[in-house]
């Protein structure tokens, strides 16, 4: 997917281009009126050329930023999917029930017992019972140890496949 410039930026660049064309046309008209080169037109001509150069630089830089943003968004998507796979693998290894998986997912996201109960529409006691089952199956004493098991797995192996983690030619340019 090709990155797109937001409409406001396009309008602003179009305005700058129109202004640069007006300034250049004025310089050319003055050159014709004077019958040839005149030193007093040099600052105006240089300013117009600098405006054009700035516009070109801005366009190229914005395109580069948008490509970089798209690359980062793809990387975040890959990392998020890989993280979810690691978490799901732990849940499979621990043989969590569907309810325990649901509670464990919310716990990993950082929700409190009361928040988990609210999201699930269940009593806090039910959530605590599920958490105790999760702790037992994960061979952990508390939430921190469950998260530590997951984090240890993430630290011990790369989250992204090697080819996804390597910057390509467009990715390394800053």
UniProtKB/TrEMBL annotation:
PROSITE patterns: HTH_LUXR_2. The chain crosses the membrane at residues 7-25, 45-62. GO terms for molecular function: DNA binding. It holds the Pfam family GerE. Gene3D superfamilies: Winged helix-like DNA-binding domain superfamily/Winged helix DNA-binding domain (1.10.10.10). Keywords: DNA-binding, Membrane, Transcription, Transcription regulation, Transmembrane, Transmembrane helix. One of its GO terms (biological process) is regulation of DNA-templated transcription. InterPro entries: Sig_transdc_resp-reg_C-effctor, Tscrpt_reg_LuxR_C, WalR-like, WH-like_DNA-bd_sf. Residues 90-154 form the HTH luxR-type domain. This is Helix-turn-helix transcriptional regulator. The lineage of its organism: Bacteria, Pseudomonadati, Pseudomonadota, Alphaproteobacteria, Hyphomicrobiales.
